[in-house]
Structures are given as C-alpha cells and as structure tokens.
Amino acid sequence: MSIEVRKLGDALLAEVVGVDISKPLPEEARKDVYQAFLDNVVLVFRDQPLTAAGMVQFAESFGRLEPHITKKYNHPEFDQLIVLTNQNEKGEVDPFESKRGNKWHTDMCYREVPARATSLHTLQIPDAGGDTLFANMYRALEAMPASLRSRLEGRKATFRYGGRAADGQARLEKNEQQAPLVAHPIVKPHTDTRRHSVFVNPAHTVGVVGMDDGEALELLEETYAWCMRPEFRARHKWRFGDTVIWDNRCAWHKATGDNPLRQPRRFLRATVADN
Ligand SMILES: [Fe+2]
To answer: Which of 46, 71, 137, 209 fits as disulfide partner to 197, beta carbons 3.0 to 4.6 Å?
Structure first.
C-alpha cells in the first residue's frame, strides 16, 4: 500500500495519512484509498484544507457525484456540492437547521439507487460539540440474534425523505414531500463487497412491505434498538482541515447536535452516486 491507514475505532473509522488529497490521486493511491474505505467504512483525512474545486476532485475519485434532493443548500459555484450549515440565510444559528441530521440515518436511502458515499469537508466548526457519530451496519447484522435476523431476511422496507414524520413537516420543499416511496431489502448486499448489512434506519424508513403498520413498527423499533448498541459505533470529533468520507451502503450516521455554544457549523458536502 502506498498509504498508511490508522484505525481510530473498534467498529469502524480510520485515518488515512501519506496522501495529498488536494491534488489528483495517482491511480495506485486511489485504489488503496478506495480499499481502505471498503475495509473501514469511514475514513478521515486531517490537516488538509480544501477549496470547493478540490473537494469536488477528491469526492469524484470515489465515483460520480449527484446533487442533493434539496436545492436550497446548493453551493453557489459547484452544483455537485451543498453547503451544510446550522445557519439561516441571515447567517444566524437556526434551531431548525441545527436539528437536521440528528437522527440515525443513511443518505439518499429514499432513492431507487441509494448513495455510495457522502463526504464532508470542514469550513467552520464550533469550539465544542457538533460531532458526527457512525454505526457499522455490517457488524450490527453479523452480531444480531438469529431470532431477530430471521424476521428481517427476505423482507423489504419502504423509504421516504424524512420518513414517517415527513407528512407533518411544513418546512419540507415540494420535491421532498412529493417523492414516492421506494422499497429496499432490509438485509441488503453491498454493491462492492457483497457483504450483507442492515439497511433500514429511524429517520427515513416508513414501513415494511406486507406488514401492517403496528407489526412493522414493532419490528423496526426492535431492529433500531439493536443497531444502536454502542459496540457498533464510533464518534468523530471534527478539527478544522478534516475531510471525512463514509460508506452509506453499510453505515448509519448522525450529528450529535449538542453544540452548547450555538456557534456556526459549516461543511462542504458531496454525495457519490452508486451507479
Ligand atoms: Fe446525513
């Protein structure tokens, strides 16, 4: 390997050193980074501030970029990027924006083809709090009691942006509200590794195909409680100059949303398509 990979968590998360991500990656390094991404699920590159163009180039080394379902966060110059922020248009810290992403979820799971990866690059981080948590859904499945796993195997779940709560959210844009439900296997094979993982999540899953609401909710709640166990998790504390990329096919993530100082938190975000 032309790069060094340092594990940061037992369940997932590793730091990659020895690669300059502000420049196009040589093919050998790109392959090694992609393998480290498959092996560790979440990668962090530290102390490398990127321009917006640099972020596009870095994220594109993992695949084709796709725009987010919401248009209002688009980057002014690069429509492949969004600016993820807890600030409103006036630059004030907004409680609604601060709550975004605080539930365990995977990005773009409400699309026919869920995202391969999401990458965040720090623009501005608070002095304390505002961490991101990750959970390894391969591990959650592999350690799951057989009695629970057997109830999930062969089943499909339905997804919508915002999940069950979406109908009541007045602040959702029209394209978010009108998006049709999509179905995915609850136990889903990874498109690169073919390993299976749990694919449902508390933020965007609506129900289970062929089950009534009560039965589906009970099964989903039991599954979430299992998947949230601490042994499947890692926490990333952001430092300025960090770029993180994670595999949406086999990991949950959430913002801790515990920024006590109400300070701005801003990232460049790119989403890598899986086709
Ligand atoms: Fe997210």
So the answer is: 137
CA of residue 17 to ligand 1 center, whole Å: 25
pTM (global) more than 0.90: yes
Q: Which tens digits make up the pLDDT trace of 28-51?
A: 999 999 999 999 999 999 999 999
CATH no. for 4-272: 3.60.130.10
120 CA to middle of ligand 1, Å? 10
Beta strands in 99-219 (DSSP E): 117-124, 132-136, 156-159, 182-185, 187-189, 196-198, 205-208
Whole-number Å distance, alpha carbon 194 to ligand 1 midpoint, is 23
pLDDT of residue 169 exceeding 80: no
Ligand 1 mean position, distance from CA 254 (Å): 7
Joined together, the tokens standing for residue 57 give: 């180039």
Neighbours of ion ligand 1 (CB under 5 A): 101, 107
Question: Residue 212: is its pLDDT beyond 80?
Answer: yes
